[in-house]
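Example record

The entry below shows one chain as it appears in the dataset: sequence first, then structure tokens.
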Amino acid sequence: MAIDEIAQRRASAAAQRRSGAAVASGNASAAHVVLLVTAAVFINYVDRGNLATAATLIQEQLHLSATQLGVLLSAFYYGYVVCMPGMGWLAERYGAKGVLAAGVFAWSAATFATGFASSFAALLVLRVLLGIGESVAFPCASKLLAQAVEVSRLGVANGVMSCGYLLGPAVGTLLGGYWMMYYGWRPVFMIFGALSLAWLWPWRRLVLPTLAPAPSEQRSLSFGPILRQRALWGAALGHFAANYSYYFIISWLPFYLVKSRGFSIGSMVAIASWAYLLNAGSALLMGWTADRWIRRGRSPTLIYKGIMAANHIGAIACMAGMVLLPAAASVASLFVFEIVSGCSYPGLFAIPQILAGPRASGRWVGVQNAVGNLAGLVAPAVTGVLVDQTGLFDVAFALAAGVNLLGLVGWVFVMPPIAPIQWARARTT
């Protein structure tokens, strides 16, 4: 009996070791997904932000007006916004891994080709194509994270991803800005486009882990039940307001610092890079902090709604400071804005991943991000028109501050409590 008991204990210990190894392997695989998805959105934002960094050089070389420049900065979103819901559907129909790879290839090619553009029309077409390619990123990323990461870890996963896409403008502005000073803007687009393709090598070798869904959650879900969710439209409105400020700043900050505040291109690069680094660091810290609070039993509703509300209130004050205060205080207001807005970014995608779950997060984020990125169509173009008409940025900053009020309405009043939706009760396809 003693020998049998010892054998049973050994077998049990071996089983526990195998189980532990499987969990560790699953955790490692989830970490690999997070890191490679983060790398993809990092590349995404480097490539889309290059035009803003090169704006003054391209304007002078191709003799563009501020209105034309605003149209080019917005053109990316013509393809990006329109295609995003469809990319969410493709991610759930054919698999997010392959769709994301195809998108990276497409936007890398568009970035490379921009280095050969010699007219406003050519740049316009390539920016639209870039937007179509990059529209895969967040629907696919959200689908992959919802499949691979536990709910209690979504905050830090999205914090890491947010850090990645927020570091994109920082690195792109820093490297791209300095390289453009020495080599011109055309070679920089070619270099970044070629380097982006390197991401495909580790991605094709990745084996995706998947959290096992309940049997009732395995059936396909149509857009209808998703579009009927009040939470979707609250999140979409809040996302639009957050993106308006973000795209206004990221599109026009280099131009504003050089033309309106009198900074040199070198000083502009340093200021903008530090601003984007603060933005990325605060996103990473807040993602970790939010998960820690949730694991201690605090409400995701209170945590995420509170963070979103604080962001929009802070943004209103910072927009006023950036345009009204002297140069040094204006830069300080910019840095504070980047910190408070960075804190909100993990929630932009953690909230829909919690609500929609693995089953519907691709389509949900496709719709939410499409509405949110309408701000990319509006903010750069409207700002260009206002600057041409007034010669100043005052009205543009005031408009950006006012749009933040919509964010308070969306996240605080339209958004219901943040908890997983029971899709089994919804009509399925």
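Notes for this example: The chain is about 85% helix and 0% strand. The domain at 31-204+221-425 is CATH 1.20.1250.20 (Growth Hormone; Chain: A;).
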